[in-house]
């Protein structure tokens, strides 16, 4: 999406992957591994605010994601807490009353996972559906393998459940596969919803209902804010903005009860 946004603005957009490596993220922030740049859109996974304030190559900067929530830099994110609240509310709206949550990350904490877990608990408390610690299953990573293993543990526990909120779509794909393996039908026995609305969600069996962040809104906001900084005269203090984009439930077969 970002590459397409740059193309639409006739901008060259070299892309660097950090692979969650702290020093590489610092190098990207300092433009050490990049060609000469006019501005940087950065989605940090391990940086602290101090790493960014000490940049050796200061210039226009827009942060994406939830890792750094408060900083003196313009920041664009989705409301992860709201995405899980929407997901849980959707399952309740199709009749689910014992909704599991697969996705807290206890051994490898994640800002997104924490916020999504909080959103699930918000909805459970507000809607009056089952509030049972046994319905919460942790994962080590947001992968199909972790989703499959978590569902296997949940099913083996004997705890009844009729809906599952997955912390992201990758986890949900593993959950769908394992539900089939243990003989449970989706959505008749268990309705399943993911978060992020990745492209493959339309092609799973059954097609996965997911909460879709406004990806285009993120792109538009990121480039609008970057261009605003780039256009400012040297020495002018450009106001910092914190922008949160909305999300929408995309209903598909996995919750069509």
Give your account of this protein's structure.
With 257 residues, the protein is α/β, with parallel strands linked by helices. Helix content is 37%, strand content 16%. The chain is built from eight helices and ten strands. The protein has helices at 2-8, 22-29, 49-53, 80-93, 111-127, 144-157, 169-181, 215-231; strands spanning 40-42, 61-64, 74-78, 99-102, 136-137, 163-166, 191-195, 209-213, 242-245, 247-250. It has a six-stranded mixed sheet, with helices on both faces. Helix 3 links the parallel strand 1 and strand 2 (61-64). Helix 4 runs parallel beside helix 5 (111-127) and helix 6 packs across helix 7. It is elongated, with a radius of gyration of 20 Å. The mean pLDDT is 87.
Largest sheet: 6 strands, mixed
Backbone CA Rg: 20 Å
Sketch the topology as an H/E string, one letter per element: HHEHEEHEHEHEHEEHEE
Structural class, by secondary structure, is alpha/beta
Q: Could you give the order of strands across the largest sheet?
A: 5-4-6-7-8-10
Report the average pLDDT across residues. Answer: 87
Residue ranges: pLDDT <50 for 5 or more in a row?
Answer: none
Strand fraction equals: 15-25%
Cα distance spanning the termini: 33 Å
Please work out how many helical segments DSSP would assign.
8
Quantity of strands, as a count: 10
Q: Give the overall shape.
A: elongated
Helix content: 25-40%
């Amino acid at each position: 999406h970002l590459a397409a946004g740059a193309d639409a603005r006739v901008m060259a957009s070299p892309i660097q992957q950090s692979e969650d490596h702290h020093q590489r993220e610092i190098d990207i922030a300092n433009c050490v591994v990049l060609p000469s740049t006019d501005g940087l859109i950065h989605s940090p996974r391990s940086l602290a605010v101090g790493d960014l304030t000490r940049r050796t190559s200061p210039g226009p900067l827009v942060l994406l994601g939830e890792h750094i929530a408060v900083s003196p830099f313009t920041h664009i994110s989705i409301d992860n807490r709201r995405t899980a609240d929407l997901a849980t509310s959707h399952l309740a709206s199709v009749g689910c009353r014992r909704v599991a949550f697969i996705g807290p990350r206890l051994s490898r904490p994640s800002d997104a996972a924490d916020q999504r877990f909080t959103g699930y608990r918000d909805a459970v408390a507000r809607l009056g559906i089952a509030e049972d610690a046994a319905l919460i299953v942790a994962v080590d990573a947001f992968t199909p393998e972790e989703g499959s293993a978590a569902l296997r543990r949940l099913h083996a526990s004997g705890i009844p459940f009729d809906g599952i909120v997955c912390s992201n779509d990758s986890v949900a794909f593993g959950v769908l596969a394992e539900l089939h393996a243990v003989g449970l039908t989706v959505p008749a026995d268990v309705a399943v919803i993911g978060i992020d609305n990745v492209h493959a969600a339309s092609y799973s069996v059954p097609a996965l209902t997911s909460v879709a962040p406004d990806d285009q809104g993120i792109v538009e906001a990121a480039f609008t804010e970057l261009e605003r900084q780039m256009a400012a005269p040297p020495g002018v203090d450009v106001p910092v903005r914190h922008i949160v984009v909305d999300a929408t439930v995309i209903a598909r077969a996995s919750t069509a009860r």
